[in-house]
Design a protein that fits this description.
mainly beta; Immunoglobulin-like; Glucose Permease (Domain IIA); 2 domains; 5-stranded mixed beta sheet; globular
Amino acid sequence: MWKSMKIASLLFTITMAIGTCAYGQAAPAAAAVAVKQTTLRVQPAITYPGDVLFVRSNQATAVTLFGNTYNMRATNGEYVRFIPIPIGTKAGDYTLQSADKKMKATLTIAAKSFATDSITVSKQMASMQQNTARINAEQVKINKARSVSAATPYFTSAFQMPVQGTLTTPYGYQRIVNGKPSSRHLAIDIANKEGTPVYASNAGKVVLAESLYLTGNTVMIDHGLSLFSSYGHMSKLDVKAGQLVKKGQLIGRVGTTGFSTGPHLHYAMLIGNTFINPNPFFTASPYQWK
């Protein structure tokens, strides 16, 4: 009897292993795995010249827009890319598509005008902009600092204003220096008294912290995905290159070093070496842009 029970138990185990149901019929085959739908998203869907797009896809490794091809970066299980919108881009509807032309997404660039901003500086200060040899040599150093960026973003939330104060020059204004057109102001200037604390607008890695010719005491932070922030004209630096910083961490103090007419922070954001409007980053994380 004991032997019979062992045989019965063995038969039951084999039956369960091959998926036989209680009625002796084979269990139905597992349902077919659903095919993952390919996606291509552009955030925000409506934007402006000088702003930036955040492109996301679960499959596309490269996309085309404005006649250019942009390679995507693999991070957190998807492919992503920031694409700056040239400040001279005409208003209208545009199509973003994957390089293989299998996926498309539409976006709208709305019209935007930029005012002028006139300043008067001393002849000595004005001459600083004529020293192209020094400016170009320093630009090589700056470009190198921004040539490498983390593949995974350091940021997880919206950016914060780096300093309290008065906005004196918005992004995109045409700068007039001593009555003559100069370069466009591709940053925001926030005035406050010298020594006012300046904080990192988000988490990242300091890639440059030193005195530069035009922007004076300057800090540059890599936030990942080729997104950088820059803080200029400071009176003091409180961080060093290579240092990891948290959002809201003290990095320096307001000053008037370099090409500056008074104490303020010159705050800029860039995709690689292309300046972009910082303001959209203060409202939400790019992952939450609509």
